[in-house]
Amino acid sequence: MSGTVIRVRERPASASAMARPRRLALLCGASLAGLCLVAPVAAQTENPDEAARAPAITAAPGSSGAAGMVDESALRYYASQKQTARMNAEAARLKQLYPGWVEPTDLDTLQPSPPEEAPLWDLFTAGRFDDLDAAIAARRAADPNWRPSDELSRKLLRASFRSRLKALTAAHKTADIVALYRADPSALDPSDVESYWTTAEALASEGGTAEALALYKSVLDASNDTGVRLATIQKAMATLPMTMAEKLVAMGRTDAEGGSEFKAISNDITRARIVADLHGAPAQEPSPADMAAFQAYARASGDSSQTGLLGWYTYNHRQFRAALDWFKLAISRGGDAMIAHGLAHTLRELGMLREAEEVAYAWRDKYVGNSILFIDLMGRKLTQANPSFIDLDRINRYAKVTLATASGEGAEALGWYAYNSCQFEAALEWFQHAVAWLPSESAVSGYALSLQRLKRKQDYLTLVNRYDGLFPKVVDLVFREGPAGPPLACAATADASPPQGGRPAPAASVPPTAPARNTAAYGRVPKPDSSGDGQAKPLPVQRSEFPLAVPAENPLRYAPPSLARVVADRQDGAFLPEPPASKTMPLVARRVSGAGPMPYESYGFNLMPGYDGSERPSTLSEPGEGTLWRAQQAARSRAPQERAASETDRFTLPNSQAVNRGYDNPDTAPSSMQRP
Amino acid sequence: MTRTLHPILGLALGAALAVASPWIGPARAQDGASPVPPATAIPGAPNAKGDAMPGASRATALADSLKNPDVWRSYRSRFITEAGRVVDTANGMISHSEGQGYGMLLAVAANDRVTFERLWGWTRANLMVRSDELMAWRWEPGKRPAVADLNNASDGDVLVAWALTEAAEAWDEASYRVAARRMAVEVARKTILFKDRNGALLLPAVSGFSAAERADGPLINLSYWVFPAFARLPIVAPEFDWAALTASGLNLIRRSRFGTAKLPTEWISLKGEEPHPADGFPPLFSYNAIRIPLYMVWAGVGRPADYEPFVALWSGPDRERLPIVDTADGRTVESLSESGYTALSALLLCDRKGTPLPDGFGRPQAGENYYPTTLHLLSMVALQMRNLSCPAR
Question: CA B203 → CA A488, B278, B290, distances in Å?
């Protein structure tokens, strides 16, 4: 056995029956699930010498593609010719060659093909189906009562079907394949497994999964060839939803030792189940033994995609210690940025936020998700109410990534960190960026508070008036006496000792050095590069009290450094002049769907009707049942209780101790059975 | 003749906005404790279904597909302000996320980075006020406040996410890629029901259209299925099954053949066994739905039979004006007089029947409004991207 061609018919009965499946598994192991298809290609059967020219037994044209099933052509020829002795000898030969083969029951009924068909059979043998069609038509034109023999009709139908199927397959015309098949399902030659597979694949991709399943099933029903049976399972797993493929897997016969005949590809079946699980598709849960075998295979394979798969699987089942090990192993084997993404998320789940931040940062340019994760992970730390000290280098690199990716989330986080540590000038600039990039209610609030602290009253009033009707928390600021919110810790302790409370995850964060904490309680926040500034102009204020008439458009813009040159390229005059407002800006806000009530409504003030006529305040409903968001919310609230149970219930293998001893104790080593 | 982009919804009286220590901490933790994108990110997992993205292999990039710079310059000077706002000239000079998305797509197609950055700059500064990664859909100048509705419009979000994806690909710009991913992920996890019994459903907005919120819900709008976007969003959000949206959209189009004209209505209810025109909306094939064949041709998806009702409708004697059809009786209730609309039928008939393009296809009329002109330019882009050739007569 060499090369990729698996010569189905030439194997001895037992020895290579073991060898080949192993090879199938290896082929698959090297590639991703779903792509590891084995395509056994049949060798030509040597025709019985005497029959070499006889049309009825000639192997169908292109029979190199007719894989798998027992070739009964010779048998059927002898039967049709009533050559009983030869027929029996051929039957005995086939039985010896294919132990599970059963003699067909219709041999008595076969009729020899009429001698006058010999030229037509020659055309058939030569694969000249169009000429054959023409010859038949000519013959019938001359003799309307003449019909080709059933045998010739059937063979011609199937051969031309296969020839068209091949052409459509080469052209990737799956819809046409489906139409061809549905027009006459009997045209599919039962001995032509390749065509079954091709047709089933087309059906599955066009939504005919039930028909595809039936075709795969009929191959399993009819074929005793191990290679064909294994390949059929592989193909089905690649084309059908796993729940359907499982029905075929369940058809596996039990061998003498009590194992499934499909055990040779059990890793591929396990992989397909894992992949289905990762995609949220129902699938049978791999048995502990199968999972152990797949883990062993993944460990030995050296293929980071396989260990990575186990990383995602364990992550999905909230077995984060195991996930950590699998992802680490995958990274050590050349895993890509997506593997690193899984590693960073796992570290986050384990509370190792500092490490997660480093991984996400290191892989930020290779996959956009890592850049986002980096911003959000550290953003969480920066926005704690009573911020802890953070290294200047760490803040600086965060600021750089924030600017490079024009991240409103990052800018707002830096704004809050600066604000909560009484660095109001820096806070103001970061909030300006945040309001340019992602003007959420909280970012606008931070901007307004910073303006207030810095006593920039006109800008402050313009901002608050701009968001009247939209952001109640922002409007609420003007109804407060003095600076809003509780006193900042930094204002009280700026000259005293640094704040001690509120530092999260002590084990996971880098302990700041004592000298650093003595010199500064908080990490100094750098100001964003002001080169992108200049488009934010102070706006005229017409009255000094709320409400004021202000322009409604948010004028703040900041381009990331990479685009500085681009935005400098002016194209004046090439744009539509902003249509002049027909009247002065209104002083009374209108109702905005989803904005909720404004603070002054409790004093009896009213709003104008909304664009849709709405007069009452409304809030927006959250994403509904069936959204991933909803599932994530539910999982988040469930998670703490589930962690312990799921960690011990699953992946516990026979003879191993309870696997994970404590989600909260990262230093506890899980069982070696589940760790790579 | 104002185009209703969004139905007027009943006031959704949900829970009041969470008011938790707004000043001392980050008020932006809208998702509860963690601002970190949760475990939706499983992009590394191989796909058991192999090539699960019909059309993905032939999905081509948008950049440089609007070949005529004069057409783009004219469009820009008529509908885009210097600040980057796309103005709906027939609709009170308002703006919306859909228009910003179309403008951004056309800017990429015209390879105009400066205008793209202005459009995106205006969009985020003025529409991203929702405290998540989606856009408030409607913005009206001269109003206090300008944002009219905090709800999103899923097609606007899909269009902008797609435009950002194309821009990131065309110009290798990290900030666009980050923004594209954030928005695409948010659309997928907040507005798509991947496991609905009708296949993946794109709800028209986060709020107001679900089975729980409407008696005839869930409600859909088939023109929100932007098929060419679904072939490209896997670039930034590979963990979501965008191909399932393509499949479900085509399936729903097949099943939404109402009345003698066998056309879908703008708003469709999926309550019950089969799709039917939604309650409270005129059962029209109108301004929204005329985009369905545009997106189908643009992405090159669907079976020949899927196009037949549209081909039949637009092969009628009056090629100069597209009809608005009442699906209840199959009659034309109004005709769209602006010539830009006929680019849609020209594109469809070129793709389906090889019908030569009319003379004016390459020259949008100067006096027409935002919507027909935009559809005209989009049709030109689709023709170029699909590499269709139907020489003018």
Answer: 43, 14, 19
DSSP A218-265: HHHHH---HHHHHHHHHHHHHHS-HHHHHHHHTTPPB-TTS-BGGGGG
Alpha-carbon distance A326 to A339, whole Å? 10
Token pair for residue B132?
């998540």
- pLDDT per residue over A633-652, tens digit each? 888 777 654 433 332 222 22
Which ranges in B66-153 belong to alpha helices (H)?
Answer: 69-79, 97-109, 113-127
Residue A358 to residue A365: CA distance in whole angstroms: 13
With contacts defined as CB-CB under 8 Å, which chain B residues touch A373?
Answer: 36-37
Which class for A3: exposed (0-12), middle (13-18), buried (19 or more C-beta within 10 A)?
Answer: exposed
B155 catalytic per annotation: yes
- Residue A438 forms contact with B (CB below 8 Å): yes
Residue B98 a catalytic site member: yes
Task: Tell me the residue type at B319.
Answer: R
SS3 category, A419: helix
Among candidate residues A424, A430, A440, the one with its CA nearest the CA of residue A402: A430
Count of CB contacts below 8 A, A vs B?
A: 363
* B38 pLDDT more than 80: no
Cα B63 to Cα B166: distance, rounded to the nearest angstrom: 7
DSSP annotation of A321 reads: H
The answer to whether the Cα torsion of A201, A204, A206, A210 is positive or negative is: positive
Buried b (16+ CB within 10 A) or exposed e, A597-606: bbbbeeeeee
One-letter amino acid for residue A33 of the chain: A
Q: What distance in Å separates the CA atoms of residue B224 and residue B161, rounded to the nearest whole number? A: 13
Residue A619 has its nearest CB partner, among B17, B49, B78, at B17
∠ Cα A128 A130 A136 (to 5°): 100
Predicted local distance difference test score (pLDDT) of residue A401: 97
B344 and B322 in contact (C-beta within 8 Å)? yes
DSSP letters, A333-356, are: TT--HHHHHHHHHHHHHTT-HHHH
Q: What is the pLDDT of residues A588-617, one digit of tens each?
A: 999 999 999 999 998 888 999 999 999 999
Return all residues near B254 (Cβ < 8 A) that are at least 6 apart: B305, B306
Residue A47: band (very low, low, confident or very high) from pLDDT cuts 50, 70, 90? very low
**B303–A contact, CB cutoff 8 A:** yes
* Beta carbons of A338 and B93 less than 8 Å apart: no
Q: What's this model's pTM, rounded to 2 decimal places? A: 0.78
* Alpha-carbon gap, residue B32 to A555, rounded angstroms: 31
b/e A305-322 (16+ beta carbons within 10 angstroms → b)? bbbbbbbbbbbbbbbbbb
Contacts of A349 (CB under 8 A, 6+ apart): A315, A318, A320, A323
The answer to whether the CB of A354 falls within 8 A of the CB of A512 is no
Quick one: pLDDT at residue B12? Answer: 25
- What is the tens place of the pLDDT at every residue in A278-319? 888 888 899 999 999 999 999 998 889 999 999 999 999 999
Contact residues, A window 498-517, toward B, CB-based 8 Å cutoff: none
Report yes or no: A557 and A531 within 8 Å, Cβ to Cβ.
no
User: Would an 8 Å CB–CB cutoff place B56 in contact with chain A?
Assistant: no
Give me the pLDDT at residue B15, please. Answer: 24
Give A149's pLDDT tier (boundaries 50, 70, 90).
confident
Q: Which contacts (CB < 8 Å, 24+ apart) does range A186-189 have?
A: A186/A157, A187/A157, A187/A158, A187/A161, A188/A158, A188/A161, A188/A215, A189/A60, A189/A66, A189/A158, A189/A159, A189/A161, A189/A162
Is B368 touching A (CB cutoff 8 A)?
no
Q: Dmax of chain B from CA atoms?
A: 69
Question: How far apart, in Å, are the Cα atoms of A465 and each of A453, A470, A541, B27, B95?
Answer: 18, 10, 10, 20, 21
Q: What ipTM does this complex have? A: 0.87
